[in-house]
Amino acid sequence: MKPSKSRQGMALPFTIVAMVVVIGFIMTMSRLNQGVKTQIFHTNNHQLSFLMAYSALSRVCAKIHAFSWASRPFAAAPYAENKVSLQGGHYDLLVENSKNREFQADVYVRTHLAGISRMYFWRVRFNDDLLDVSNQIFVEAFLNGDPKDFPVAGKANPFAKKVEDLLAQRAANQKQSDLLAREVIKLKKPNDIIKELNGRPIEAPDGSFPPTPEDLALVARVPVPLPEMPTLPVAEKPDAAGPNPARPPSSYDSIVGVDMNAKMKSVLSSSETANKLNDEAWKKIEELGSAGIGEYQVLADKAAESREAAHKDMSDLIKSAQTGIEDAPSTGAARAIEEMVSQTVVAGIQNLSGLIGRTMEQLEDNAGMEYLDSLPTAEHVAKLLNDWEGYLGHLNTEVERLNSLASEIGGFHKSAEVEEALAKALQSAQENRDKMAEHVEATKKRLEELIKKEEEEADQQQQQEQEGTGDGA
Amino acid sequence: MKRLVSGTTLVEILVVIALIGLIGVAGMRFFTSVNTSQKAFSQQAILQMESRKAFDQIIDQIREGTDVIRPATGETLHYMVFRDLINQVNMLYLEPNKEESNRLKQRVYRLISYCNDFSGLYKKENEKILHNSIKQVRFSSLSPSSVQVNATVVSDKGEYQFLAHVGLLNVGGIE
Questions:
Q1: Could you tell me which residues are beta bridge partners of residue A106?
Q2: pLDDT for B43-56, tens place per residue?
Q3: Which of B50, B118, B49 shows the shortest CA–CA distance to B89?
Q4: End-to-end CA distance of chain A
Q5: Residue A117: what pLDDT?
Q6: Looking at beta carbons, which residues of chain A come within 8 Å of B86?
Q7: For A308-366, how does the pLDDT look when each residue is reduced to its tens digit (9 = 90+)?
Q8: Which of residues 18-47 of B touch A (CB under 8 A)?
Q9: Could you list the residue range(s) of the whole structural domain that residue A335 is in?
Q10: Does A451 share its domain with A302?
Q11: One domain for residues A378 and A269
Q12: Is B104 in the A-facing interface, judged by CB distances under 8 Å?
């Protein structure tokens, strides 16, 4: 015990010294490494920011290609995105149509990376050249801007004014610039070129050092060897994870345009469903008679919902098409949209007209004039009249809506077959409405007859009762 | 007797002091050496950073250009002439820098940008020094709207070579 006690005085100083050395080493190394890492990161910041902005521009261009110019995501209103994460930073995006310029868009991207914000601006022009679909978007203007100039949708945008001024200046300088470029291209020596550009003559090298290729190039045009670069010892790779192609962030697909195909599919789907459900509903009555009323009602309600959806889809489609036609890059493109949309709307009208026809067919087969004649009392006929008047009212509205849709696509280009189909569908709907009106008139007449007959019978009965009472008296 | 056992001898104290001294000296030397190499590394990083800053300016300037006038496509030159966003003709070229050459004991150049504003006069404000100690620069034109820039920057801490492929983005005027 005694010897160990005597060594207690040495352990503590050793431990403290060792701890100080280790902590000091770790702190120094981490501080120095952090300093170098920060310097390298700031060095890369500029390039990474530009690449982030260029990625955003590429997304916009890809969406214009994917949806067509007419259905571009910013056709009706500016498109904006905020804080889209990318490569360890994030960016804000705003795309809008260039004011008073056809087929041009302004793309603003503000990047934020490691506390540094930058703004980039592109004005792109869409060229609808079907012979070269890979070359449809041109950059009219590219500028680095102040992040503070990033515009807010719907508010005044001074940056756009600056761009307009610069482009006006570019146009004004075009002729002089072309002439000067033609002169410069003929010259061989840098000093001759700088003289042509009204610059200060380049100082000649003194004789202190052996002449270099750069020295020689100042006085005469000499062949220039291609530069040689040593291979990098370690591959330089960014440390940010980057996008995962297997699972792209949702924001990647957040730019959406007007999907005309989806709208057209929706019109066909809802109108066909309405027709099919209406047919199934009547089949239940045909199969089960009055026992199928419950199932009929469920199916008929669903058919009515689909019919309303079809009307809404057709209105939406026509509205979108009108915007697309106004913005179409050529008369050919406008005509193609018109034909596509009118064909779809006519198919929808045909389906809804077919629905009316199926209902009228059922009515005539099972509850038509024969049924009316079979009703014995005015009360029964009055009930039937009430139902038929309600249906006639519905038919009046429905035929009016179909005619309204037809007039909305009246100015659209249509093929002869589509014109014919539309005329037939509208005529069929109108004929069925007229038939229903005739039924209602016939029912009214029948009701009047029955009422008259019942009144006469009542009078006769009353007379007989009075006569009977008189005889008795 | 008890006091003698619990205390430390003079020899023990001397040994501890000597060991601490040795560790301290070794530690100090180690820190000095780490610090020196780290400083050199840091200066290299600063050189790279400053060079990159200067070249970022050059890239920004070229990017906002519309088309390359010289070098012609496929040609490599020590200078470059191009048109900027507003169609002014710009030239990037080298000029010997005597002061820096004498200091660094080798020929170095200034990289200068000059812009013609069609006034017909030399204007000092149209001339910008982009870098003060360039050893060599090459501009290779790969198409009318792109150029490869290769430059070697020199400082008293060494050389740094820079390569960039820059696309001129304002190509709307050229179809």
A1: A96, A123
A2: 777 777 777 777 88
A3: B118
A4: 150
A5: 92
A6: 166, 169-170, 173
A7: 999 999 998 888 888 777 766 667 777 888 888 888 999 999 999 998 988 888 877 76
A8: 19-20, 23-24, 27, 30-31, 34-35, 38, 41-42, 45-46
A9: 260-464
A10: yes
A11: yes
A12: no
